[in-house]
Amino acid sequence: MKKSFLTFLLVALLAPLCLTSCSEDDNEVEEFPNWRQTNEEQLAALYERAQGVTDGSWKVIKNYTLESAVTGTAANSIVVEVLQAGTGSGSPMFSDSVKINYRGRLLPSTSYPDGYVFDESYTGDYNPATANPVTMYVGELVDGFATALQNMRIGDHWRVYMPYQLGYGVNGTSSGIPGYSTLVFDIALVAYYRAGTPVGSRAAEGGMWITE
What torsion do the CA atoms of 142, 145, 150, 155 make, to the nearest 10 degrees? Predict the structure, then answer.
């Protein structure tokens, strides 16, 4: 009898802890319900939409690492919404550095109906007159970001949807981006730097920052 009573008492004491633990786990899971399916379906819809637009306000651009013979798909391409078209005469290369303003977020989730912002170089609404651009090296960025930059011109402001295959993959990051996440980046190209390589513009000669 003593043994049975002690067993019952132990179970009774542990039960609330188990319920608390299970509840916390459930909340974590529910934060991103059906995350892979949600991301793949929404990106596929955006990909299809962009392909049907012919006025230049939307673009589909295949991953820069792929040869021209490879067919573009939603999984190996970025989808671009052109927020503002630039007037620059050239685009950065893989080996260039760039000055950009950007904001990165995820697709909407339970706690973040507008998408969780995981990184940004400015706060509030984007204002090119007050934002302070940051410098990055194109070759160090994920494929989706590098693909976008190599197709942008000075003054372009794009909203870029990157499939997880061109972002942080199936594992995500230790900083809180879950696997299978479509990355949504607002990117504004301010300038790029091509050291010592003239590209047909005075601004490019002598390794100067190209701003036009």
Answer: -150
- Residue 57 DSSP SS3: coil
Short-list 163, 138, 202, CA closest to 41: 163
Bigger pLDDT: 118 vs 6: 118
Give the pLDDT score at 26: 44
| Class of residue 1 by CB neighbours under 10 A (exposed 0-12, middle 13-18, buried 19+) | exposed
In this prediction, residue 167 has a pLDDT band, given cuts at 50, 70 and 90, of: very high
Per DSSP, which regions of the chain are E strands? Answer: 58-62, 77-84, 97-105, 117-120, 134-137, 157-162, 183-193, 209-210
Give the whole-angstrom CA distance, residue 33 versus residue 79.
23
Rounded distance between C-alpha atoms, residue 160 and residue 77, angstroms? 10
Phi/psi of residue 138, nearest 5 degrees: -55, -45
Which are the contacts of 147, defined by CB distance < 8 A and separation ≥ 6? 61, 62, 63, 64, 78, 166
Which range (20-34, 99-113, 160-174, 191-205) has the least confidence? Answer: 20-34
Of 3, 145, 162, residue with least CA distance to 78: 162
Tokens encoding 90 = 């050239």
Query: Of how many residues is the chain composed?
Result: 212
Q: Are strands 157-162 and 183-193 parallel, antiparallel or unpaired?
A: antiparallel
CA 96/CA 111 separation, integer angstroms: 38
